[in-house]
Amino acid sequence: MKYFIVFCIIITSIFYADEKKDSIGFRYGFLGQMESNPDSTVELSDGYIIYTNDKVRINIGYVKESSFYLIYIGSEGEVMMLYQDPLEGKANVEAKLDTIYASALPWSPLSDPPGYETFYFINSRAPLTELTKLMRRYDKAPEKAQVKLTNRIQGMIDDLDPSVKGDLALIPNRLDKPMVGGVTFRGDDDDNLKDMSLTHTCTGSNGVAFQKIVLNHQ
Q: What is the pLDDT of residues 7-45, one digit of tens each?
């Protein structure tokens, strides 16, 4: 019995070590400034109703030993890579434990036509080489070819989406207090949002953390 218990402990330790190794997560802030109230910054979430000329901003924080992508699919099906890790493929061994904080999308106004504006946050242990190649092909392709490439890009993204794959999707957690540059705000304005605020954490498994946010542009 004693040896069986020891064996179970070893197996459990290996399982949790592998699980921890494959786990990954990032912080983000999806912020908005409404044209009707430009002096106030709000926190945007999936399904949020937003209007033409309202401004949006996206901040991210992720470890340097991973790759991060922010992909946008607009109301007319146009595809854009808004952010790709600038250090991808240039591993800095001395800085592997550091965190990159960046404005993946600076303050930008929404323009017509209205519709659903979709943003994909993807944090991966390994570079998504095929996806980035396809995005580069899309940027250079004529309009008719872009339609077919859009479908292929969407398919690759869906392969990473836990809700599409049927995996257990972890709901992003809101930080107790907004953060900026890795430092928690202190003082009387702890709950106020700043330009570089990070408001949520998103965790994933199997080497990928994935978050999809759709804005209802009216």
A: 334 433 433 344 445 689 999 999 999 999 998 899 999
Q: Could you give the number of structural domains in the chain?
A: 1
Is the pTM for the entire model greater than 0.85? no
Beta-bridge mates of residue 179: 184, 198
For 167-217, how does the pLDDT look when each residue is reduced to its tens digit (9 = 90+)? 655 667 888 788 886 655 444 455 678 899 999 999 998 899 999 999 999
Residue 2: inside a domain, yes or no? Answer: no
DSSP string for 169-199: PPPPEEEEEEEETTEE--STTTT---TTEEE
Q: Using CA atoms, how far apart are residues 45 and 49, in angstroms rounded to an integer?
A: 9
Rounded (5°) CA angle 198-72-64: 50
Evaluate whether residue 128 is within a structural domain.
Answer: yes
Which domain range does residue 125 map to? 24-217
Pull the structure tokens for residue 182: 């890795």
Q: Does 212 reside within a domain?
A: yes
